[in-house]
Amino acid sequence: MLYLVSDASRPVTFFAAGNLTNEDAFLHPKRTMDSYELISVAKGTLHIQSGERSYHLTPGQFVLLFPGECHFGISPSVGELSFYWTHFYFNTEQTSVCEERKITALFREANRPRYILPETGTLSANSRVNVLFVQLLDLSKRLGSLSLMQCSYAQSTLLLELTNECFFRHHLMQQDEKIPLGIADLMEWMQLNYDTTLSVNEIARKFGYHPSYLSSVFKRYSGCAITEYLNRQRILVAKNYLATMPKLTLAEISEQVGIADEKYFMRLFKRYEGVTATAYREAFSQKKKNRQ
C-alpha cells in the first residue's frame, strides 16, 4: 500500500470536481493527468487501473490516482454506477509517496500538519467525506473571484477529513492521555454499529464491563455518554443519506440509522445540527453532475 504525504500548512489548489452517473457499461477513458484525482464510489463497482495497480471499487471505497500515471478502465461496469471525483494540486514541494511502515512515525509529529492519504481504502458508514464532496460540488458551481479560493479550502478540508478518517484508531491511541484499548474498541464498534438496538446494559455486557463502570469510563475519555455518542454517529450517517440519497424519505433514513421514531429522529437532528433535516437536505439539492 502506498501513501501520499504532503505539508498541510497551506491549502491545495482545486481544479475540477463532479459526480459521474451511468446506467450501465461505463468504462473509464484512458488518460494521463498532471493533477491528483480522488474518486469515491457511491453506487455500483468501478474497475480501474493506474500504472500497474488495479482496483475494483465498490460503494464506500475510494482511490487516489497519482499525476503522471496512465489510468484507464479495466472492464465495463454492470448496472448503475455513481462516483464522486475531484482533481487538485498540492502547493508545496514537500510532497512524497511512501510505504505504510513509514507512516506511524509521522503521527507523532503533531506540530507538523500533514495530509496523509492512502492510495485506496474504505470509508466508515458515518464518514463525512462524501458529504464534503457534495459541498465541494456545490461550491464549484458558483461564479465570482472568491469561488476558486473557496473550492481550494473545501478541497483541503475534504483531504484532511480523509486523513483523519483513515487513521481514526491510530489517532485515538496517540493522545497524550492514552485511551484504554477496550474503550477505543467500543468507539470503533459504535461507528460501525450505529444502527444497533442494544441498550447501554447490553453493550456493557457485550464488552465485559459493569454498566455503571463503562458509562463512567466512557464519558471520561469521550466527553459524552454512550447514548449521546451513539446518537451523534447516527446523525453523521443521516447527514450522508440526506446529502447523497435524495430518494430516501426521512422515515426511511430514520430507520436506516437505527431510530424507530421519525419524530424523535427529527428532534435529534435539529438539536445536533441547528437546522431541520429537510433544510439540511435542501442545502445540497444542487450538484454538478456529468452523465456518461
In summary, what is this structure?
The chain has ten helices and 13 strands. The protein has helices spanning 129-140, 147-166, 168-173, 181-192, 200-207, 211-222, 226-244, 250-256, 262-273, 277-283; strands at 2-7, 13-22, 31-32, 36-43, 46-50, 53-57, 61-65, 70-73, 81-89, 95-99, 114-118, 120-122, 289-291.
Explain what you see:
The chain is globular. α1 runs antiparallel to α2. The chain has helices at residues 129-140, 147-166, 168-173, 181-192, 200-207, 211-222, 226-244, 250-256, 262-273, 277-283, and strands at 2-7, 13-22, 31-32, 36-43, 46-50, 53-57, 61-65, 70-73, 81-89, 95-99, 114-118, 120-122, 289-291. It has 292 residues and is α+β, with helices and mostly antiparallel strands. β5 and β6 form a beta hairpin. The longest helix is centred in the middle third of the chain and has 20 residues, at 147-166. Strands 12-7-4-9-2-13 form a six-stranded mixed beta sheet, with helices on one face. A four-stranded antiparallel beta sheet has the order 3-8-5-6, with no helix packed on it.
